[in-house]
Amino acid sequence: MINNKYYILLLVITVLLVISVITGTSYSLWVVTKGQTSTNVVETGCFEISITENSNLNLTNTYPISDASGLRNTPYSVTVKNTCTINSKLDVWLNVMGTSTMSVDAIKIAYGEKDSISSPALLNTLSDIKNDVAPSDDTYSHVYELVSTTLAPEATKTYEVYLWMDINATNEQMGKIFNSKIVVNNRAIN
């Protein structure tokens, strides 16, 4: 008796499944769907920048000097031009190389656009973003963000960086090496 109920239930389920499949198939054969009538259009702009360095940043045989003297030095200068049609995000970083033996608290810096140079500051007072941009890279001991801005199409910006040994640097810093490089990072944005 249990076997008969089981077979009847199985037969009813099978019949319902067959009816569902037939109904779904015949419905899809008779229903008209409209396709896309317009074309897909993708427009892109160009993204290209030009970078010009006007001088080298050189602290060879340096010694402690005042802020006024440091600002009389020839700055490192970089000009960035967005030569295309897309806005770009421009970052300028000072990367202190891992091979540096001089302490960052012995270096003074001033930077900015030609007519708006920042006040002199000890390098170690700037925000170190190394863990944000290169956490596993041992090439750099510190990465300092100097500029973060948007560069409009056809816009040009020139930034200057002054570095010198702080007048209050101790004798322990004499004969040590400070290795760094300026990095310009630029990427397209909406």
CATH structural architecture of the largest domain: Sandwich
Helix/strand order, N-terminal first: HEHEEEEEHEEE
- Give me the CATH fold name of the largest domain: Immunoglobulin-like
The general outline is elongated
Straight-line distance between termini? 73 Å
Total count of strands: 9
| Number of helices, where a helix is a run of at least 4 consecutive DSSP H or I residues | 3
Tell me what the structure shows.
β4 and β5 form a beta hairpin. The radius of gyration is 33 Å and the shape is elongated. The chain has about 190 residues and is α+β, with helices and mostly antiparallel strands. Helix content is about 20%, strand content about 35%.
At a glance:
The chain has helices at residues 2-30, 67-70, 130-133; strands at residues 49-53, 76-82, 88-97, 107-113, 116-117, 121-122, 140-151, 156-165, 180-188. It has 190 residues and is an alpha+beta fold.
